[in-house]
Amino acid sequence: MIDPNFFSFELQTKLLFGTDSLKSLKNELKSFGNTLLIVAQKKMEEMGYLKRVADQLIEDDFHLFFWSTIHDNPIVSDVDDAVKSLNSKKFDAIVALGGGSTMDVAKALSVTACTGGSAWDYVYSTAKRTVEHTIPVIAIPTTSGTGSHMTKYSVLTNPQEGIKSTIVSEEIFPKVAIVDPTLTVSLPQYMTAVTGFDALSHAVESYVCINANRMTDMICEKAIQTIAKALPQVINNLNDLILREDMAWADTLAGLGIAYSGTTLPHAMGQPISGRYPKIRHGETLAAIYPSIVRFSYPGKVEKFDRIIRWIAEGIKMEIENIDADLASKVFSEFQKRIGLSIHLSDFGLEEKDINGLINPTLKCGDVYTNPVVATEQDIIELFKFSL
Description:
single chain, alpha/beta, Rossmann fold, Dehydroquinate synthase-like, alpha domain, two-stranded antiparallel ribbon, 8 strands, 47% helix, 11% strand
C-alpha cells in the first residue's frame, strides 16, 4: 500500500541569494562556457542593470549576444523571432535578466534553440512536441513576484488564437538562480504591489492545492507569513532593502511551492483573461478575481484557509474572529486595498458579454481540477460575474 503522504522533492536549481549576489555570476558561468545569450528587456539597460551584468563578463573574455524583444505578457513570436535571428549562433548558456516575462522567454528559447519548431509546439495545450534538450538558463530576477527563477514553467500567449498556455518540463528549471534584492529596489510602487500579490497567490494556491505535501506546506506557510507582513510595508518604503530581501525570499519560496505543488483555480481563470487582453498584467487578473474565488474555495480547505486569513489579517493589523468564507473574502479585499490593488475586471473594460469567451479556456486548464473545490462551468461564469 502506498503511503498517501508520500512525496518526492529534489531541488533542480542552484540558488545564490542575498545582497550583491550578482557578483557571483561570472564564477557560475565559467562551468558552462563563454558564449552567452543575455535575454533582457530594453529597460534593463536604462536602469543600469544590464551594464552591471555585462561589465563583469566582458572583462573575462565572454562572448555576449543580446535579445530584448520581450512583451510584458510574452508572446510566441518573442521566442520564435529570436531563434530565427540568432539561428547561426550556438550558446553555452542563456542569462535571463528581468521579471517573469523575461524568464519565460529565456526558458522557451532554451528549448527551441536546441530542438527547433515554434515555442507554441511545446505548450501543454497543443503538446505537438516534447522537451528533450535545453540550453542551461541562469535566472536573475528583478521583481519579487513570479517565482519563475525556481520553476519548470514558461508561460506564453498566442495572439492569433487569443490563448495563453505553458511549457511544462523538468528540463527548463533554471540551472542557477541569482537572487540579488538590490535589483528590485527600483521597482515602482504599483508594480511592487502587482508582482507581490502574484507571489502571494502562488504561495496560497500551492498551499491549498490538492497536490500539496509536507514540504510545500512548510515552504508556503513561510512565504505567506512573510508577504503578509512585508508587502504592505514595502509599498511605502520602496528603498528598504530588508523588506525587499524579505519579498525576494518569499517570492523564491512561492516559486518552489508552485513548482512542486501547483496553482489552482485563480490561475486557471486568470490566464485566459491576459491571453485575450494582453495589456492586463498577470498580477492584475489575479487581484481582480481573488476575493470571489477565496469565498468559493474556502469550504474545501477550511483549516488551511483559516491559517492564511489569520496571517494576512495580522499583516495588516486587522482584528478578526469567527472566520468563514465571507470573512476570508473580506480579508483579502482589505489586504488588496491596503496595497493599492483593489481592482475589478470592469476597471479594464471587461463586461458581462466578454465572459463567454473565457469559459472554455478556463475549463481546459488543469488548475481547475486541483482546486480545493472543483468549479463547474456555471460556477466559473458566476465567479467571473462577481469579479466584474
